[in-house]
Structures are given as structure tokens and as C-alpha cells.
Amino acid sequence: MKTAATSLAEQIRHIKEAKKFDIRSGALPTWCPGCGYFGIHQGLNACIQELGLAHHEVVTVSGIGCAGRYPFFTSNYGLHTVHGRTLPVAQGVKLANPDLTVYAVGGDGDGLAIGGGHFPHAARRNVNINYLMFDNSIYGLTKGQPSPSSPVGMKSKASPFGTLDKPLNATLMALTYGASFVARLFAGDPKGITEALIEGTQHEGFAFFHIYSTCLTFDKAYKTWAHLKQWVHPIPEDHDPADLRRAFDLVLGDDFSTGIIYRRE
Fold this sequence. Notes:
Blueprint: H1 4-19, H2 37-51, E1 58-62, E2 77-80, H3 86-96, E3 101-107, H4 108-114, H5 119-125, E4 130-135, E5 138-139, E6 145-146, H6 170-177, E7 181-186, H7 190-202, E8 207-212, H8 225-231, E9 233-234, H9 244-253, E10 257-263
Parallel strand pairs: 1-2, 1-3, 3-4, 4-8, 7-8, 9-10
Antiparallel strand pairs: 5-6, 7-10
């Protein structure tokens, strides 16, 4: 017969077992309250817990910007590198120790501007790492300048008359570069992030996760929570992620469908 003490001991054991794979550190994230990055952090943490990856088996590598602080908020190994060099360092970590599970995290500015030259080569080489691009279409840490994915007409202190440049489409770029796993996700859906990350982490090859988020501090008019919640929607149920042509058609025709866009074994 179970006693109250026995039941409590079991509960404590289950909690300890779950915490063994919890990558959150004691350092509280310094992101603004309501930032979508919290949802991404929750999604990745849940993925690692579901896969049962021990702390010493995981490395997170970041560049600069708001996403660059990510390794400080985790209890696994982490490297906070320099602007635009997230992918080269992540590839080096994986090549040095192939047994590690490597997550490269960075913003759209880090990955599409100064780091844009590394993106195609990591994808085409199909190095077995996981790249999470936190895309809020703005340079948030440096007070709101337009980024390579900012929409045409976006006004800021650095672009008072609105941006003129056509934004880059990171999902389309990943497909073009030959990435073997491509997913497009929404920071407001941590469960969807977790499910895609689990599949991508188990995928043998370069896995790219394009995650739409928002900068609620500096973007009050364009990629807001209200807009994103209206725009994002699941990919069609009949979509075949093994069909590259259909993946291109989907991305070219719909910028805000979320899910696994493409997967090649």
C-alpha cells in the first residue's frame, strides 16, 4: 500500500528526472517582456527534454544581437561567438566531436547580413547541425534599424522614409542552397517548434528552422503579434515535404505557412 510519503518521493523523483534534461540556466533571459524568443527557448528546451539529451551532449552556438545571448540562458555547453560567425563555429564544433548535438542560433541580421556568406555553404555541405534563425525583421539590440528581412516601406529612425530594399526570404534561400531539412515556424507556437525541432534534430544533415518572431519594442506597425497571428497558418495537409518542387511552389506562393517544408533523407 502506498503511503503519502511514498507518493511524494515518487513525485520528487519524476521532477528530478525531468530536470535532468532541462537546459534552462539560473540566468534569467534579458529579452523584453513579451518577446517571441521566450517561446523559441521553451520550444528548444522541450525538444531536448523529449529526446532525453544530457547537458554535456548539447552545444548551443550563437552570434550577436538579442539571439546572441541565448547560450547564457542554458545549462549545457555554449559558445557566444562574434557577429556573423555562428555557422562556421557550429560546424567546427560538430566536426571536432560528431557525437555532440549542435544548435546554432542567431537572428536575421546575424544570418542574412554579415553572416550571409556562410549560410549557403553550411547548407550545401549538409553538415549535421541544427540552425535556428530567429527572424523578427529588425536589429533589436542596436535599437531598431531595418534588417535584410525588413518589409519594403518599414519606417525607423534609421529609415525615416521607409526601406527601399526588397526583403530576403530565408526559407527560399535554404531550399535554393540545398538544405536537406527546412522548416518554417512561429514563435507564438512553442509546441509546433518543439515538434519540428525533434524531427530536425533526428535528421542526419543540415536542418534549418526559419522562426518568425516580432520585436514588440521597436516594431509597432509591421511584424507585430497581431499581424503574425493573422498571417501564420499550417501548411496544407496534402503537402509532401519530400517533393522539392512542391516545396518551392509553397514558399513562392505563401510566405506565412508553417511546418516542415522540405525533408531529404
